[in-house]
Design brief:
Layout (H helix, E strand, L loop, with lengths): L1 H10 L1 H16 L11 E6 L2 E4 H17 L4 E4 H6 L13 E8 L1 H5 L6 E8 L2 E9 L4 E6 L3 E4 L2 E2 L11 E5 L7 H8 L6 E5 L3 H10 L4 E4 L4 H13 L3 E4 L15 E4 L2 H15 L1
Parallel strand pairs: 3-4, 10-11, 10-12
Antiparallel strand pairs: 1-2, 4-5, 5-6, 6-7, 7-8, 8-9, 12-14, 13-14
Helix pairs in contact: 2-3, 6-9, 7-8
Amino acid sequence: MIEDLEGFLDTGLTDVEEAVRKAAAAEVMPRFRQLAAHEIDEKEGPHDLVTVADRRAEEHLTESLTALLPGSAVVGEEGVHADPSKLDALHGDAPVWIVDPVDGTRQFVHGDPGFCTLVALAHRGEVLASWTYAPALEELAVAVRGRGARLGDRVLQPGAPEPGHVLEVAMSHPDFTTDEQKRALLGLDVDGVHSRPCGSAGLEYLAIAKGEVDAVAFSWENAWDHAAGLLLVAEAGGTNRTLAGEPFRIEGGNALPFTAARDADTAERILQLLRAGAA
């Protein structure tokens, strides 16, 4: 299986890119700023929305991606919501496509272009490749483990922030945090750090890889929100760590909150502040 995956990473990347673009073109963009009220539902509350575009795009990607890599499984946000047992594929031996069909659904519903489609290919807990596609912004970033990250033809490698630079940190929205997590995140309320609630997680990771954001501090661990972006940041030269100081595991069981940052020193600084807040 490993040899098959290596071969796929050599020859199949453009096919995946085409599949992602086609899904967004067919199911997402025709509904952007065109949604009817009956095409929007709540899942866990008024801040947790799902639309017909989310469901149709995930169905489209499930069909196309498994056809590209026979024997692979799909762990998608909407599929797992309907059947939580699908998460078990993250612990299996088959390659897994991790899919968020519309990351930033709230932005999508409100007509804001800050949403994206996220796809990652993983095997036995290791993310091998990822695609972050923001169709309304016409941006597509691709990362492959050990081969770097690109946004179109541009190599993504932002390096460390300048000395004395006020760190720009996107963090979990207060609506989605426990009291304990809120205390940890309050540790970021210090001089030298400008923290704000995040938008689309996928686009925040892309902003780190572009050097526009220095770090994120997130308190949830859904694989479809993080797998693509964490590889993108890592291949751009960044890193991630959980509150326990360990790399984030896409299978779950992480000490939260966790951070991803454009360099190791920034990640360590954010971790220290989170720990101080949690103490």
